[in-house]
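INFO  loader      accepted 1 record
INFO  loader      residues=518
INFO  predictor   begin
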Amino acid sequence: MKINILATSDTHGFLFPTNYVNLKDNKPFGLLRCASCFKDQKEKMENTVTIDNGDFIEGSPLAYFIAKVKKQPSPSQISNTFNMMDYDFGVLGNHEFNYGLDYLHKAIKESDRQFLCANIIDEHNNHPLGKPYAIKNVNGIKIGFLGLTTQGTTKWENPDNLKGLKFLSAADTAKKYVPEMCKQTDLNVIVYHGGIEKDEFGNPTEELNGENETYEILSNIDGIDAIVTGHQHRKIAGHLFNVPIIQVGHRGEYVGHIELDIDKQDGKYSVKNSNAELIETKGYQIDNDIAKTLLPIQNQINNWLDEPMANIQGNMEFNDSFNVRLNKNSFIQFIQEIQMTTMGVDISATALFNNEAHGFENPITMRNIITNYVYPNTLAVLEITGADLKAAIETSAKYFTAENGNITINHDYIFPKAKHYNYDMYEGIDYVINVAKPFGQRVTKLLYHGKPVVSNQKLKIALNIYRAVGGGNFTMFNASKIIKKDGRMMSQLIADYLRNHKNIKAKNNHNFKVIYEP
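INFO  predictor   done
INFO  writer      dumping tokens
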């Protein structure tokens, strides 16, 4: 007998095959492609269980429009899409909390799939967002499904959105519940919105801070027959400690499939063989029945995205993200100036979050804003020292390496997942990064108002909230140093600024250099 698990993860509100950069995109991803894939695969398979592994509420312009522009009490269009796909189980991702707990509770209530949430508890040690696990009888076989969410959520989420909640270690939680499940089940599956922290040889692939715990779970706990992972946006299908494992990228570019070939001996079921694979969705057309229900909201979004907001004198576009990170451009300077003006400081940091960013077209529209500033960050002001500032720039400088004298991207920022968002550029200071120098010694010039920055100097800097609380391993920043916040999401803040500044001048003061000089 075969048991088949089909899974999505990290769809981030991308229903249609578009990233909204252009009006008529037809990208090789989207939940509507996954819906067609589900239908096709279910027709071919027996004993199928369907799972979503979290991060479904936030991430796309559609998700933002529903939550922040229409101000709906819940993401009903997104929830209805999942409902029409007939999922069995779901877990919560870290981004489920971005729009607040009330919004999340309503999303859970209107969803047909059963949410499993073992390692998020309240002050009374209850599980307010879903039972720890569920047992499903599949053709006579009792299969336990344990739901887990990365405890890294607390490191970058707005604390107001997590009030009353405690995130426990996924590994510790699995150690508690898997033995309990084994007493009641024939097989057990972990559904974990978290990733893999070590390679197959046990070598760390990232800082071991508890954000991703798959290796620890599988290396220490018996009784796990399959695991669905996510969060890192990696593309993984294989085995770890002989357990089939999948991770399906993001935005619905793949559906994950685990096949368990079940044998029964002496009255007990066991996995005789297993297979894990990723099914590309680009070969599937969108599910037109579901798409028809979404056309009204899709048309509203496109009309909103294309409304002109301001004109540019000059050029804020670019087609080479790496060159921007090396040499800056007018788009980056503009974002920095908005942050500094809004927060009343003269030092700022921002990142070019991914390689889909392309700057602002003329005239600037909401489409430009949303597709360039993709995260629902708010702003904070930190009071830091000159030593903190230098340490932060040194951390950013790790983004670069050199090959044969040519500056390129450090492999750690590409694998196991792309982390371009952890390279910040700074405004209000003048500095030089020399990539030929060792890590921690690369900042060879650092001036504030034309004078060298000294270690004990008090400075105020505007940052997004993720970075302000130390996200991205910027340990010199933390919540205790925050002295001011702005509750508006950055995309809204940019839009508000443009409503009061209809003519924008593109400029670049080239305040930093990235060089290679041995």
